[in-house]
């Protein structure tokens, strides 16, 4: 299973990169969401696939028995939530870009560039 | 001496404020500060006279070898006298010169001049080379401020920038030299550096050290090829020119050279370089002095020539050269400052400074004319003025030194030109061309005539009665520079000597130049090539090239295409991984292939398929669905591998993403043209595959090396014993690593605030049209489903400590309830049913999470140590963790709702 999960995680990661390299900002957004998913998958693998038992201490027992690794799970849990917030934040930005610039193409979002370099009329250039 | 510097510094900061409340007389009062310092220095003259050196130091940063050590020896003493004495005159003169300026401007000018004086004193008193460097740079900066004093004129801004660029470049060279000296000797003491000159020269850094020191000195003292900044610096107000750019600051290069003479003399090429540069400088400056059109630039070029002579004298060996250098340094400071004052008076009263259009001023400026005459006679080296004596020493030094006759011939020629320039600038504006006299704006006043007259008189008196100054300043200065006492005999008449003959030759040629100045001047001016090939032009072209180059490089690197930036990042990451793996020369270790379970395999492969589909599809909606497919399959994978918490969270998140992104996709066009050519897509795919392959092998290697996680084992053992929780994941989040979770919660809260501000409806509300019809299926189940989800979310939150669940998941599920409501009945009704603003929830939640850690502090335990109460047997066990988790729940709920309502409202506009 390790091979399979490594393949799947890395594959998702690669697909995410292809999406991120697009110039359509919505595809970049989907790519980032996918990147978070793929990374979580790989992170889960880093905790090793060793047991199907959840890390929950059974009633009447004081310590955790044989189970999956709790630490990676705690990390991934926050990672999922943060990744979600990131994705949605990007969605907000894309929507604002569409409202103000009328485009979702990253090439056209050049409001800063068209302002030109600062101190355009430098005495040395004059 | 430290006290002197402190008085000077604080005086410079406060005393000029007088100029704000006083009018014309302010200069005289402010001049009391430098005069007081001058008196202070004169009072220690008896110590210097005996050849003693006064040292003083306080440790500053001893670990760096940086101690604030000062010392006063003969050479420093001479400089201190000049700096404070001429400084006082400059202040008095400025009081009269700046009458046309507002008081604030005048006050600023006085402050800068006095600060400059402090920096000069610091430079010449510094013993530690780092201290010297600091004051040296301070003089450069103050020179910049004074040259650019008239900030509204573009010419003076340009001149100021140029002066700063050149001298700051020299300052950097000095910094390099000082660092290297510190590296070689292990100390920054100047005395030590001079004492171990041979060690420095013999070390591998010897050559660079000498080169850097020479460049630093040449830039400061305006030696070829760095001379061009000085004539431009004449844009400064004339008193500043007199002070900085003739009498004191430009002599710092000479000071440095004289101090480090043993060091550069210890190399084979040091003296030769100094002498060659000095000779070229003299020739260039003499030529330009004849071409100069106006008063101040003629003076500027003659100053460069004089600095060349001083440099030459430092470069020559033998005691006579040192005597000549010290003598000429003082004589030049006196007469050149006086001449600048006269030039300033002419400009002040007539408003113009072209030598050809001035004339007959002796009638309106009689005292200035006399002062100018006296100073010029000194400059020309006519007996009995001080300039004559110093010129005698100059020729004597050259005759005595072991060098060829070429420098001597150049020196004679340059002296002849100086005679010529002195004659021209005295005769033409003041005594010749009476018909050119025009009405003047200002008449002479005491503060304008006194300083030049005093200086010119000083030149005469010193040469007639040289006893005191020789005893207290010249002889100790020579001894300090030369290293041992030298007999200095100053008198006007030495008898008929070779030096006198050379003087005679120089004066004769000079008289010829005065006679034929006009034809020589016009002839030389017509040679345009001198301008075209000047170093100044080269410097400007270099600067322009630098800016153009920087702009080109920026345009090449900062192309503004997001895809190429990201490609660089991805490819760079892959290259770094490959490189480090290659360096380590290790092959990945592969784990044992375990058993393959059918169901999880299919789920995982479906997820991978979804990811592939997302890259292939052209429709954004299909892409969203495909990405969602991947997310769900990963959630199922989590569930099948013992991670129910993750599965729950992932399911909820995927559902919410679909809802939120649908709102986005409703607003923007779904069909978008392809943004990449097939070639680009292919190269992207190759690079992505490369990185994915590296990750694949990397994680296999990690899995193969896997070892038991000690922390995981600890949490498993302690989570019930110490934190009363069965669900280890949740216990880690809310208890063991609560500070981390608090931080992450905070991130979510901040992103919610950001989104709310970005999506705030600007100005106008959505038109209250008829509410959209509610779909039949929603009408039936919408409200019930939402209530069910809310109830579930509270259960999930409550049981989180012992069963799968917790604040994060709970909050997400609760948000899902409102998502259902808003899908069914619209945003407005969903928000009404919330009965609060989402950001209020975020705030309350943050407050809960922050407060939940406080009770522990009351109990004397660290912040966020959770406390438990067993419920007395009736209630279930209660702990502060539930407050913390409730905070997380509220923050997540509020944040998601802020996104949800904002996006949906913005999208429906």
From TrEMBL, chain A:
The chain crosses the membrane at residues 6-22, 29-51, 71-95. It is a multi-pass membrane protein. Its EC number is 1.6.5.9. Residues 107-126 are annotated as: Disordered. It is an enzyme of class 1 (oxidoreductase). Keywords: Cell membrane, Membrane, Oxidoreductase, Transmembrane, Transmembrane helix. One of its GO terms (molecular function) is NADH dehydrogenase (quinone) (non-electrogenic) activity. Belongs to the CPA3 antiporters (TC 2.A.63) subunit C family. This is NADH-quinone oxidoreductase subunit K.
UniProtKB/TrEMBL annotation, chain B:
Residues 681-764 form the MrpA C-terminal/MbhE domain. Residues 126-409 form the NADH:quinone oxidoreductase/Mrp antiporter transmembrane domain. It is a multi-pass membrane protein. Pfam families: MbhD, MbhE, MnhB, Proton_antipo_M, Proton_antipo_N. Residues 779-897 form the Na+/H+ antiporter MnhB subunit-related protein domain. The keyword Transport applies. Keywords: Antiport, Cell membrane, Ion transport, Membrane, Transmembrane, Transmembrane helix, Transport. The chain crosses the membrane at residues 75-97, 109-126, 132-151, 163-188, 200-219, 240-258, 264-286, 298-316, 322-343, 364-385, 405-425, 446-464, 492-517, 565-584, 596-614, 621-643, 655-674, 686-704, 742-760, 772-796, 808-827, 839-858, 878-903. It is found in: Cell membrane; Membrane. Residues 63-110 form the NADH-Ubiquinone oxidoreductase (complex I) chain 5 N-terminal domain. Residues 608-665 form the MrpA C-terminal/MbhD domain. It comes from the Bacteria. Its main location: membrane. PANTHER family: NA(+)/H(+) ANTIPORTER SUBUNIT, NA(+)_H(+) ANTIPORTER SUBUNIT A. This is Hydrogen gas-evolving membrane-bound hydrogenase subunit E. It comes from Sphingomonas rustica.
């Amino acid at each position: 299973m390790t091979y399979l999960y490594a393949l799947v995680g890395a594959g998702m990661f690669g697909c995410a990169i292809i999406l991120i390299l697009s110039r359509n900002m919505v595809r970049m957004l989907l790519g980032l969401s996918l990147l978070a998913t793929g990374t979580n998958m790989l992170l889960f693998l880093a905790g090793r696939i060793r047991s199907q038992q959840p890390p929950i201490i059974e009633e009447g027992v004081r310590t955790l028995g044989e189970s999956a690794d709790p630490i990676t799970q705690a990390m991934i849990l926050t990672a999922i939530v943060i990744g979600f917030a990131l994705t949605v934040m990007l969605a907000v930005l894309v929507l604002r870009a569409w409202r103000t610039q009328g485009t979702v193409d990253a090439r056209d979002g050049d409001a800063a560039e068209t302002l030109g370099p600062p101190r355009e009329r430098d005495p040395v250039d004059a | 001496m430290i006290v002197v510097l402190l008085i000077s510094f604080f005086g410079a900061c406060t005393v000029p404020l007088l100029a704000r409340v006083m009018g014309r007389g302010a200069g005289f009062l402010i001049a009391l500060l430098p005069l007081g310092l001058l008196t202070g220095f004169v009072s220690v003259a008896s110590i210097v006279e005996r050849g003693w050196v006064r040292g003083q130091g306080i440790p500053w940063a001893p670990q760096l070898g940086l101690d604030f050590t000062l010392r006063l020896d003969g050479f420093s003493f001479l400089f201190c006298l000049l700096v404070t004495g001429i400084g006082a005159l400059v202040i008095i003169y400025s009081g009269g010169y700046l009458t046309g300026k507002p008081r604030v401007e005048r006050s600023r000018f006085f402050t800068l001049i006095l600060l400059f004086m402090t920096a000069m004193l610091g430079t010449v008193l510094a013993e530690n080379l780092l201290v010297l460097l600091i004051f040296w740079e301070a003089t450069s900066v103050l020179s910049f401020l004074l040259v650019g004093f008239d900030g509204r004129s573009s010419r003076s801004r340009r001149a100021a920038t140029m002066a700063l660029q050149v001298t700051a470049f020299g300052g950097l060279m000095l910094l390099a030299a000082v660092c290297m000296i510190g590296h070689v000797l292990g100390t920054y003491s100047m005395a030590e550096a001079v004492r171990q000159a041979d060690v420095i020269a013999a070390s591998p850094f010897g050559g660079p050290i000498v080169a850097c020191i020479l460049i630093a000195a040449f830039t400061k003292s305006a030696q070829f090829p760095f001379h061009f900044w000085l004539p431009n610096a004449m844009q400064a107000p004339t008193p500043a020119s007199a002070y900085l750019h003739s009498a004191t600051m430009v002599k710092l290069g000479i000071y440095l050279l004289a101090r480090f003479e043993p060091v550069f003399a210890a190399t084979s090429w040091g003296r030769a370089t100094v002498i060659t540069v000095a000779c070229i400088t003299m020739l260039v400056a003499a030529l330009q002095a004849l071409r100069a059109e106006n008063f101040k630039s003629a003076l500027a070029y003659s100053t460069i020539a004089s600095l060349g002579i001083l440099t030459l004298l430092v470069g020559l060996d033998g005691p006579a050269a040192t005597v000549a250098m010290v003598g000429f340094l003082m004589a030049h400071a006196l007469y050149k400052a006086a001449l600048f004052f006269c030039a300033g008076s002419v400009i002040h009263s007539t408003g113009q400074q072209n030598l050809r259009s001035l004339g007959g001023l002796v009638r309106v400026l009689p005292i200035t004319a006399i002062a100018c005459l006296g100073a010029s006679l000194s400059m020309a080296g006519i007996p009995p003025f001080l300039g004559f004596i110093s010129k005698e020493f100059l020729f004597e030094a050259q005759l005595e030194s072991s060098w060829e006759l070429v420098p001597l011939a150049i020196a004679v020629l340059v002296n002849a030109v100086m005679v010529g320039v002195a004659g021209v600038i005295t005769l033409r504006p003041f005594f010749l061309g009476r018909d050119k006299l025009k009405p003047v704006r200002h008449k002479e006043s005491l503060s304008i005539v006194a300083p030049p007259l005093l200086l010119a008189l000083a030149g005469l008196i010193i040469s007639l009665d040289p006893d005191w100054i020789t005893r207290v300043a010249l002889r100790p200065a020579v001894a300090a520079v030369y290293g041992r006492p030298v007999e200095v005999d100053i008198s006007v008449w030495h008898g008929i000597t070779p030096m006198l003959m050379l003087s005679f030759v120089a004066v004769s040629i000079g008289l010829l130049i005065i006679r034929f100045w006009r034809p020589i001047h016009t002839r030389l001016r017509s040679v345009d090539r001198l301008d075209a090939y000047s170093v100044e032009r080269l410097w400007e072209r270099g600067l322009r090239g630098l800016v153009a180059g920087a702009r080109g490089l920026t345009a090449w690197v900062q192309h503004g295409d997001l895809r190429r930036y990201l490609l660089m990042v991805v490819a760079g990451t892959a290259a770094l991984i490959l490189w480090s793996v290659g360096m380590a020369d290790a092959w990945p270790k592969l784990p044992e292939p375990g058993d393959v379970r059918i169901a999880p395999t299919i789920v995982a492969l479906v997820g991978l398929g979804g990811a592939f589909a997302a890259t292939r599809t052209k429709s954004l909606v299909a892409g969203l669905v495909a990405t969602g497919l991947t997310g769900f399959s990963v959630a199922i994978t989590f569930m099948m591998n013992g991670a129910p918490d993750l599965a729950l969270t992932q399911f909820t998140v995927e559902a919410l993403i679909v809802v939120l992104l649908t709102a986005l996709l409703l607003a923007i066009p779904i069909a978008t043209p392809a943004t990449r050519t097939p070639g680009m897509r292919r190269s992207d795919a190759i690079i992505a595959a490369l990185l994915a392959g590296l990750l694949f092998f990397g994680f296999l290697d990690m899995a193969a090396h896997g070892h038991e996680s000690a922390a995981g084992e600890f949490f498993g053992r302690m989570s019930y014993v110490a934190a009363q929780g069965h669900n280890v994941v949740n216990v880690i989040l809310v208890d063991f690593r609560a500070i981390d979770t608090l931080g992450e919660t905070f991130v979510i809260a901040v992103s919610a605030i950001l989104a709310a501000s970005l999506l705030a409806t600007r100005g106008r509300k959505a038109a209250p049209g008829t509410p959209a019809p509610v779909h039949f299926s929603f009408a039936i189940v919408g409200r019930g489903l939402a209530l069910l989800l809310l109830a579930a979310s509270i259960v999930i939150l409550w049981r989180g400590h012992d069963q799968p669940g917790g604040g994060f998941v709970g909050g997400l599920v609760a948000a899902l309830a409102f998502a259902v409501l808003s899908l069914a009945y619209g945003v407005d009704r969903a928000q009404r049913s919330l009965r609060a603003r989402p950001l209020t929830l975020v705030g309350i939640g943050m407050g809960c999470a922050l407060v939940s850690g406080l009770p522990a502090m009351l109990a004397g335990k660290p912040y966020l140590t959770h406390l438990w109460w067993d419920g007395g047997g009736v209630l279930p066990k209660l702990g502060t963790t539930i407050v913390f988790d409730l905070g997380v729940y509220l923050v997540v709920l509020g944040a998601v709702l802020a996104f949800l309502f904002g996006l949906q409202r913005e999208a429906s506009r």
